[in-house]
């Protein structure tokens, strides 16, 4: 029961009444993770969530990262995302296993393998300094098999820069809008496109930006429909969700 | 240029270089709204955003609501959502035009017409008192042509209530998780399903819930991937976004 | 020493050394206000600040308002602004002295007289519900002798509504941008025009708008140069400052 | 009057009326502490509170720690907890007196001696990075004579990890739930067990976790009965209280 | 499997390996609640949590309260706590079923029956205005079978009032300290007794008490060991937890 | 269309109806910026905003600064302001192009050229430690061709220092009031002068100044008319706006 | 031991070693209050604090107020302050005992008797709407036997009003500065006088005054030495403290 | 007019009408400070405020400190307090002029001279880590000629430590209560003594102490009359105010 197809079959037999939910839960829970002592590696996540493997690097030693990523690699995982890994740790990890590392968003991709390049996700930023967070979103989405178009430095204080790229924006299946300071980019983009917009407030700014709080509140209060928000600086979360949306299957009956 | 097909054709000719973006912008902007004095009714929104018409009732007089909705109805709009409309106002509006009114979420649907019932959106709540916000989400999604399954009062302090409905949750194309107080529902649901989860914090609670702030922060910090957040009590926004996601077209050609 | 000319002469003689600052201060302070017991009516303010008379109505009884305004009127003041005066109080005041009253911004103009209509101030709002604050700004500016152009309901979630009035915006000598929720209007306008922009956050909104805090922070963090902010809902302050800027004298030597 | 038995006898004679409360207070207060100049060592605390000795290391020099701990050790104290002591200080202290040091929670145990291992306290964490705080709780409880079971990395975003250890949880006399980010662990655990749950928010997280505030508010708003909260990162306080509860005497004799 | 004994037997057989945790979970989940449409009445809670039934009255109509309480009463529940029920609702409920109602804490006890009066819980308040919250705690604890001693109006600004009742405080098995404003009562009590102290901040106060935030922060920062905190005004939660602690079984048999 | 005159002519032809706004927008948008990859250099800003060129140094590498400033310099720009540039970066930039650098406000002026010294802007500070922010404002205004008078260390706790310079204050066309701590300077100055006052809160202070929040709130709540506020420490924004106001053309011709 | 003299004698004998502190404490605690059931009337407070009797009216019923005040009156207390008593309650109280009532500060003085009028306390306000809080301070101080001079409506936005009363200010032994909004009055006054200044922030204001928080922070950050702050709207506390300071005995004998 | 006597004479002649306030103001303002360019040294402060000279060291270079202190010393000032001066700066200053330096509160006393030791100020702290702030208060008061008694480490979690020093507390003319964390010391002390209590919140603590905010709010909400608060960590301000109060002249002659 190691791929999404099998699990879907099981759930459909639940839906049809052939299997009880309790029975399904039991099958689900057999051997779902490997216990490394310092972490429980969850091999079922990609079954339950249909996604690439992710390893949160923050607060883990290089040794722990190597241990977990290796266990994943041995099970055949490819394109394993390692978030918030500092350059020093990356060097150690790269000695132990194949690693593609991006220093600005501090993102690693272990056991890189072939990827698809599906659909179209646009990642837009208000300014140049929002780029590290935007890159975390863009690289995450690319590692999960999506085509990504970058629209950087198109903040609303120079609206013509955004408007001159209207065609790019309007062709997106999903937009990730990354901005600090007043966070107005999400509202403006949300009013222009007809696809879901994921807003990412960044901690870029000074004064009364309060570490991203200003942009966060601004984005939550966006008047544009179809907009939702992730945590401050959470480029990974935005990229992951954008991938989910971009890769939605069509409605058979529609 | 009054339906989505035409506008897509135009944008594809932009993509192919046959039309410049500036030219497209100009075509776009011809006669986009009707000026009623107190409001600019935007008939192009459903072109640009592919969505049902929405009329924000908050802060508008019954007369203004009637004026705007009538103008929309005359242009052929059906299932026009009117948000945050008090019961008194609804009575006046119902005298002037066909209206379906839901008092708990204070939501009206003017000029109700036939709707599709596509896909599957699950709306779940932590408690009974989150129901008005959840109904705003569910009714919005239904008015926009989606099939909605309600899972109310499945908060995490009684986890077995949620687990016994696991089959319903796992069959969703999109989940709207509505909760006040500690807002843990979004995290738990987000860890169980493999589809986008839209978290809606509610202002339900007392003490240190601070009008929904506690649930909002909790949901923003959710460790579960694929989760994003809308504003406190913004059931409409969640239902609208859930509809967008549920009705995504498949990726056939890419 | 009752008009601005005299006071300027005095100050120039200070600048030239003919009068010491201390001497000027003394002249300044002779008979500057009338003590009504419950308030000190300041007849020198229009000397020192070159502005119409203003009477803050909040927290004053109708009797106090009548007393103060009458004292001003007897000294020859015209177009006396009375801010935040409820309709009930206005009725009482209107019985005692000539009054022009605007219920939505709760603004009165006592002893209305002839006014000029100088320059060009644009007052723009994001939505319909920002209108009361905007009207406080616009009526204040008009009472102080300025020409005002209103651009209401041009919020950034429907950008084409704003862009279609670009000519109006760009002809302004000063813009007052009034918006609640995410407050993005100030940034967008600030990037489009080359005159000072005064941003007024409004307490309109719900959820995480926190009574205008979201719009306030957003506006303070605006990336657009030339933008400054007044207090939440302070339409009067914005109109007053806009008048000051609009009526600046040219630089003799430039 | 140096052990708990004597003090209980005294208080019972108060309850029976043989001794007045004032008299008891006087007996209580004779020679309760030793004045070292920079600190007042309180030898009565373990009488009044029935607990192991604790020495708050934060803001004390190694010399001060050695002085206080030595004074305690000379009075016969064993298993003296020293909280928040940096590794450098620990090295100096270890040169002067017998010390067991745990670097991750920065916790020392001076004059380690034999301990009991009573009852059953479960310490659970949401993630790997909550471990230092959890270890402070667990080691505190162990030093005070309790049996502790650790359940680490069982956060609610992977609910099956928690459910698969349900037997461990349900056998606890008291649970310490340690979590950062959205802090949902306390609610979920609180709904599953029928013993007191002590929630410890941690400052782990980023973005809108605001140094533990998000987890703190979430835990305070927990819908589960039987849950209370200690300060952010206060593993010591949680372990101390858990020990108090675990070692409650039965009601039979009261 | 309807009483605590049976469930304990089951869990012991889990502990001994005779039953798997998964099997236990399944047995657990059979028929755990009755679905009334608007609420899921949870008859297993008292199995899982070993506590009296509780019905959160806030946000429920009198009809819903009657429906849920009647269903409980028919299953034999007695002393059902109904929290935050307004006097009007109480009158309607009292017409439909036996009800004991306390207006100041807005607490009802449906189907009142015989209770034990075990152990000793002290409920102390800083001032007279903290009494409603304190009564919610005291009545909750009494309904759950505990003996409660009230110490009201013993705030720290008149320390002698507290000290003169030291004997009462020191005989408690658990203290609930209820205080608004600066919340210092919890710290002072926590330093005097050697049993768990549950601190309840109240929203009593004005100015910079910010609806209980001041007392909440103060209590969280208490320097006294053995103290934990529940939500602002959460008298019920404190009484419930105090009952759990007071009724702990002794360790002899474990 | 490279200077302000041409653009004004265009807009007047819009006003007269000879050109449509849409047409004007198109002319506007031709070749407005140069794309350097990491930034879009905006050569139209000085057309639209009539101001000196500004380059936000924060978050840019010295190489990026050199690249952008050189592109500007080659187009003939002079007196290019570079904000928030650290001393190290300044040294590298100074090796590549002509640069005047001010270390305390971390402000650079690239390609310095001749400037006018028009009108009169007064920059006042509450204390000595507000000087870096004040210098950012003063140097910005000077680089943009304004005459600036500095009034430093005239805080309200020593009122006579401010009053003894009343003549300087009252001769200003615009005052920039820079203060941290309680920020009272803006109110006092605003009550004394009859020109616009731009308040700049600074992050100077300790304790409950909360990084400038105290001064910010104080300034927003100023009772003096004609006062507006920019972001904490935003000396540049204040200087820029002061220049706009100081250089307003007179109304004679409008 | 019912007057201050006796207690001083006792404490001096403590100081001289003739009495132990413990003994003194015991004497202190004999019969210090009368228990009315709902309140503990504290007859020792005026011994320990040397002040007039005070009865906090907030949250007490008229019956409770009458009960407590009567008990005090019977013991010979005169000029008993009753704070925050609504007009309705005052009418009931006035029927039962001699009462002087001031509706604007909601302050009652029960059993009014002869008073001294010592020293000189100045109570100043920024605006007219700060008067209720100021009157609470002034009447409190007068009831406690002090001479009070009122300086109302002397806010810093019209500095000449304050300066023209400089002689009054400088003759004070203690100043109470009452202000809302930006709270600058305390700083300006603190810089002018050489006596203690007690700052009282008021909740007067709107927008970002946040219920007095802005004025509170401003006053805490005052740069003027000799200034301290009481809670928002706490006129009573300021008047009480001002009386203490005004009535300090001279240092002759020390 | 260089000492307090002369200025008092002047003011009395104002009070008697022999001199007008305006005239007094003029005399006041002649040569009040020396302009060093970077600072205005205010020689009149000790006239207006009757206090020792103070020099805020924060944000000043050693050279500036030497310059200002030397100018003061040359005018005959002795015991000049220099606050918040780092050890490095102190070493440089000590090379240039006579300096007594206290490293823990970072306080210097330049040109130390003979001092009186009047009255009795008690400085109390909750814990050992509050000592640096307490020492700033104590040394400030001593430098200004007051006798100071230190009561350190008497926090309320060990109430007997405080009660055993009750005699010291009750003999004070003014108490400075310094505490972090929950700040309860001020309330407890305020209820015990009958003299003014100045509360100083400290930034000592962790978790939800939020840099002193918890203690600040707690102290502002103190129920004890006669208590006021200064800024977080503002030991200097408390010592200064305590000196003012301690040295109040008696009322005999007024």
TrEMBL record, chains A, B, C, D, E, F, G, H:
Domain PurE positions: 119-251
Membrane-spanning ranges: none
Domain of life: Bacteria
InterPro entries, per database record: P2CMN_synthase_LarB, PurE_dom
Protein name as annotated: Nickel pincer cofactor biosynthesis protein LarB
Natural source organism: Pseudoflavonifractor hominis
